[in-house]
Amino acid sequence: MRNRLNFLINLFFPLLVATLAQWIDFQLDFTQDQRYTLNSSTIETLETLDRPIKIDVFLSGKLPADYLRLLGEIKGLIQSMEAHSNKILIEYIDPYEGASNSAELINEMNQYGISPEYILSQKNQALEQMIIFPWAVVSDGNKTFRIPLITNKLGDNRQEKLNRSIAQIEFKFFDAFFKLNRKQKKTIAVLTSHGTSENKKITDLMKDLQPYYKLASFDMKALEKDPIKTLENLKKFELLVISNPKNAFSKEEKYIMDQHFINGGKQLWMINPFDINQDSLFNPEGNAVASKIELNMSNIFFKYGFRLEKNLVKDLYCAPIVLATGTQNQTQYLPIPWPYYPLVQPSNHLIGNGISNLWLKFASTIDTLKSTAKKTVLVATSDFSQKVKLPINIQLNEASEKLIPSSFNQPSQTVGILISGNLFSAFKNRIKPFKLDNHAEKGESEMIIFSDGTLAENQLEKGNPLVLGYDKWTNNFYGNKVFLKNSIHYLMNDYDLLKIRNKSITLPIFDLESVSQKSNRWRITLLILPLILLGGIGTIFSRFRKSRYGQ
Questions:
Q1: Is residue 208 part of a domain?
Q2: What gap in Å lies between CA 492 and CA 398, rounded to an integer?
Q3: Quick one: 166 and 98 in the same domain?
Q4: What percentage of the chain reaches a pLDDT higher than 70?
Q5: How far apart are CA 518 and CA 89, in angstroms?
Q6: In this structure, are 36 and 97 located in the same domain?
């Protein structure tokens, strides 16, 4: 009877456990940084999906070992997502499966915006090149978004790049779900009057913002004779973006912008207090004059608690400028450090944490003043800086001169700040340019100011816009676009996009140099240590047997 009962228990108990496992979805995350525990915003977005979402992951097939680890992390994250939604359809696609020609495959994938990554690895004392496609595509049938699975940061080695990519996986998928799920978009106005950036030069940033927000051009001079109507129109927009204005603002226009700001409208300024024709640097004479320009905004900014100083800031830590040497077939293009192009690291604020260096061109410094507003430094130069007063004649042959570190003896200089809190109107206790019935004396708002007017401008190739932050002359990528998108998300109160992006994951990084130095020691240790342990255990057992059974 007991044998029959044991047989039934051994048969039915495993079947019961296996059946319950199919119905109960339960997992525990024992990782120290909780990397498989989704953010509450991600969970909420997944639970509110109202249609199936298809995810195609092209990072599959034959991969290097460290990229296999990245693929494993992606699979783990997607499994966590599937636990909160039954509308996710996942497929891992090997791009090379069925492909007869690698060149044709690369060309076809490039047409869909999926660029390859070339990896060199050492195998059997020879270099082997692998071509992979670290991308995913998310689609709901109507809209499709590409997700780059690799996050590049200037200066990262291969392991740091992969660890950074793993930390950003959840954000990138949440970002795609956020864009797919957004029904009502908030509105942003882009100033087109006052000589602001040409459309082609801010195309890439605007294109990237379209899935998140409604964008509209705003010409402040369209209703120049009706400033009240202009203000009413401006108040319809939650954010006003001003990129590189070159013409002065009138008193009426300043009052319009002041009342938009004091009434809670956000503003993002990219502005230079001087004028310089960068194209003239590359003329036969090779020089350009940086001279002051009057945008007539100094007294307004002063009231808000900051001042754009009339200077240029140079930085020892800088991006290169590419110069041609030689003639005809002997021409060579050499990247040479150019201190007028500071490479600045964003602060650890929610906006800039973990972002690659920003590429500035001919920036000035920002001085903060005492006011009711809170000032937060977002971007600053290195501790090896130099301020140059205007006007100044900039000559291209300066690039050929050796940089003297001792001349960069000034501390870090602020070039980007966030103004927030309760502020007083710049027109408080002053005569107003026009009568306004509902004039606001005080209000709460936020403004971000960068002292580089070209920060949002992309380069052009044969008249076509390139990716913002990409330098076609050096083939370097900088963090300008991601940083500006984060700035706009912050001003638009889309904090979830920033908090998930700042998720911190600590992954162990091998010290390859240390491993190579100690490899022989570890090989000998792993060979001899097991033999010593076995010998010791054998000796102990032998003595134990003799003492017990010797008689």
A1: yes
A2: 42
A3: yes
A4: 86
A5: 46
A6: yes
Three-class SS of residue 266? strand
Specify the higher pLDDT residue, 357 or 289. Answer: 357
Cα(13)–Cα(35) distance, rounded to whole angstroms?
34
Residues 203 and 215: beta-carbon distance below 8 Å: no
User: 40 versus 455: which is more confidently predicted?
Assistant: 455
Helices (H) and strands (E) in the chain, counts: 13, 27
Question: Is pLDDT of 430 > 80?
Answer: yes
Could you report the per-residue pLDDT of 150-161, keeping only the tens digit for each? Answer: 887 766 777 778
The pTM is what?
0.82
Domain that holds residue 171: 23-179
Burial of 294 from C-beta contacts in 10 A (0-12 / 13-18 / 19+): exposed
C-alpha span between 318 and 154 (Å, rounded): 13
SS (H, E, C) 209-221: HCCCEEEEEECCC
Give the residue-averaged pLDDT of 253-282.
88
Cα 37 from Cα 23, distance rounded (Å) = 21
Nearest-angstrom CA–CA distance, 410 and 491: 32
Is 391:292 a contact under the CB 8 Å cutoff?
Answer: yes
410 contacts 385 by C-beta, under 8 angstroms: yes
Structure tokens at 98: 């069925």
> What span, in angstroms and rounded, lies between the C-alpha atoms of 55 and 87?
11
Helix residue ranges, H only, 83-181: 102-111, 158-167, 169-181
Mean per-residue pLDDT, 79-95? 86
Q: Does residue 170 sit within a domain? A: yes
Domain final residue pick, 501, 521, 543: 501
Residue with tokens 């226009």: 253
How far apart are alpha carbons 264 and 164 in whole angstroms? 36
Radius of gyration of the chain (CA): 30
**Number of folded domains in the chain?**
2
At 390, list the tokens.
């205007």
- Give domain status of residue 166, yes or no: yes
How confident is the model over 431-451, as pLDDT tens digits?
889 888 888 999 999 999 999
Which amino acid is present at 207? K
Q: Which two tokens stand for residue 205?
A: 């940033």
CB within 8 Å of 243: residues ≥ 6 apart: 190, 191, 196, 197, 202, 270, 453, 455, 456, 457
**Cα end-to-end span (Å), the chain:** 46
Residue 268 CA to residue 492 CA, distance in Å, equals 11
**Of 501, 518, 537, which one is at a domain's C-terminal end?**
501
- Report CA-CA distances (Å) from 388 to 161, 226, 311, 312, 421: 37, 42, 5, 5, 32
**pLDDT (tens digit per residue) in 98-126:** 777 778 888 888 888 888 888 776 665 56
Can you name the residues that pair with 139 across neighbouring β-strands? 54, 144
Helix H or strand E encompassing 313? strand 311-315
Cβ burial, residue 206 (10 Å; 0-12/13-18/19+): middle
Residue 239 binned pLDDT confidence (cut-offs 50, 70, 90): very high
Contact 90, 138 (CB under 8 A): no
- Of 343, 317, 314, give the one whose Cα is nearest residue 476: 343
- Among 203, 149, 143, CA closest to 179: 143
